[in-house]
Write a structure and sequence with these properties.
2 domains, alpha/beta, five-stranded parallel β-sheet, seven-stranded mixed β-sheet, 18 strands, 16 helices, about 15% strand
Length: about 475
């Protein structure tokens, strides 16, 4: 970065990265970037420590009052499980006042004026939060039987959307999706059109901010709506099935009604697949489209298309975003899964690495097939056995942790459940500067029985932090 004044601006507020093109973001001198990232972490710690109760408690227990090196922040990173540390009974008993108090310990947004005593569901609770505050929470799918609630705000919502347009934009030698210009219709074989999950939230942002409210430009596999109560129920059902305890699952009348709705939506699956495939492969044949289809969705879609004797004829200007095998949560891929996909959907597949916890995604380059971390993400790797941060030099493999400098309504330090290999020295042939992630991404839950996360200097510090989120709730 040659512009000293702009460098000073980044030192003052690293969220300015978002106004930069991909070429500018990945052209920053690594030494200058390290300064900006360290200053950014220091500033966020000073700003957020008195506002985020769990961070304040954790820093006190660990006697951390100042960040001297970037690595120091790893002891203060929250396990991703922190965002589902509420008690299940709060939801089952309709105690959404306690859910509010729990969430208030994890966000900078003041929730003291929110009275949730009249809420009778998770959805009504989140609707109330959004009506009374700037929070725009994102929720996980609850595959383990318990959803996570991430207290993101309006600012992170727009950052996430804008990043999607930037990372799929132009880069020398790589395709430009042209999504930012709104020229391509967006397709995704996801059975849910609206709701709290990451995917429908993205659909909402595309409809509103890219297509000017034109719902017809976003094509999905069905018009189902999954509010957070449906996600909660679906997770509980999956967990009960996995334990062989489905018959013991007790549902109140409202939950039973939601289950009936799920059953009806699943029954409409065939008609939805027929409609989606006709739109994508017939109506839009040889027209440029943006197809977002993670491989775990694309495999069954290819199988269904083959049954119908259908095959894609994509325009050369189409952009196909696949990937996501590491996030398929235990799905077993057939040995010939790529051959099945290519037979029906022959294309040059672009890929990204991302997660709900991060405000940005990382695009895979075509030169080295590496995922490149945007400059707002400060990456770390943790030894899964000793819980100590690994050196941030050379090629390292461990548990992925990061600090997200874009996070402003919640603490940006997270310890994930993923095993990554990162080349911290960079030097990829694609020309992007900075560290990059290798393709062999795995979930520790798929690799070992014990996936307990303890990165703090004292394991008890995390336990105390969790106790704070619960202890502050009880009357």
């Amino acid at each position: 970065m040659s512009d000293d004044s702009y460098f000073d601006q980044l030192l003052g507020e690293p969220s300015r990265f978002g106004a930069m093109s991909s070429e500018d973001q990945f052209g920053i001198d690594p030494r200058e970037l390290a300064q900006v990232q360290l200053r950014g972490i220091q500033q966020r710690f000073e700003e957020m420590r008195p506002k985020v109760n769990v961070l304040e408690r954790l820093s006190e227990d660990l006697d951390i009052t100042k960040i001297e090196r970037a690595e120091d922040v790893t002891a203060l990173c929250f396990p991703h499980t922190m965002y589902k540390s509420f008690a299940v009974s709060y939801i089952e008993d309709g105690r959404f006042d306690r859910m509010t108090r729990w969430l208030s310990t994890l966000t900078t947004v003041d929730l003291s004026g929110v009275d949730a005593t009249g809420c009778d569901s998770l959805e009504s609770w989140l609707n109330l939060l959004e009506a009374r505050t700037t929070l725009r929470p994102l929720c996980s799918s609850g595959t383990t039987g318990k959803i996570s609630v991430f207290p993101k705000g309006e600012i992170e919502e727009m950052t996430r959307f804008n990043n999607q347009l930037v990372i799929h934009g132009p880069w020398p030698g790589e395709p430009d999706s042209r999504l930012a210009g709104g020229k391509l219709d967006f397709f995704c074989p996801w059975p849910v059109s609206t709701g709290r999950h990451n995917f429908p939230n993205n659909f909402k942002m595309l409809r509103k901010h890219l297509y000017g409210g034109d719902d017809s430009r976003v094509h999905v596999l069905g018009d189902a709506h999954w509010d957070i109560d449906v996600l909660w129920l679906a997770g509980r059902i999956r967990a009960a099935e996995a334990k062989g305890q489905l018959s013991e699952l007790r549902l109140n009348p409202k939950m039973q009604a939601l289950r009936d709705r799920l059953t009806q939506q699943q029954a409409a699956g065939k008609d939805n697949i027929d409609k989606f495939l006709h739109e994508l492969l017939v109506e839009y044949a040889e027209r440029p489209v943006f197809l977002f289809a993670p491989f775990n969705l694309l495999i069954p879609l290819a199988q269904e298309a083959k049954k119908r004797g259908m095959k894609a004829k994509f325009s050369p200007d189409s952009y196909v975003l696949g990937g996501g095998r590491s996030g398929s949560k235990g799905m077993i891929f057939p040995d010939d899964w790529m051959e099945q996909i290519m037979e029906i959907f022959p294309a040059e597949y672009q890929q990204v690495f991302g997660m709900t916890e991060m405000t940005v995604a990382c695009r895979r380059c075509t030169a080295g097939h590496h995922f490149h971390l945007p400059p707002n993400i400060v990456p770390f790797l943790i030894d899964p056995d000793t819980s100590q941060p690994l050196p941030r030099t050379g090629v390292q493999t461990g548990r992925y942790a990061f600090y997200d400098l874009y996070a402003q309504t919640h603490w940006g330090g997270i310890i994930t459940g993923d095993r990554l290999t990162i080349n911290f020295d960079g030097g990829c042939a694609c020309g992007r500067t900075g560290p990059y992630v290798h393709e062999d991404i795995e979930r520790y839950s798929n690799l070992r029985d014990d996936d307990k996360i303890t990165c703090a200097k004292s394991p008890e510090a995390y336990e105390k932090a969790v106790e704070l989120t619960l202890g502050a709730i009880h009357e």
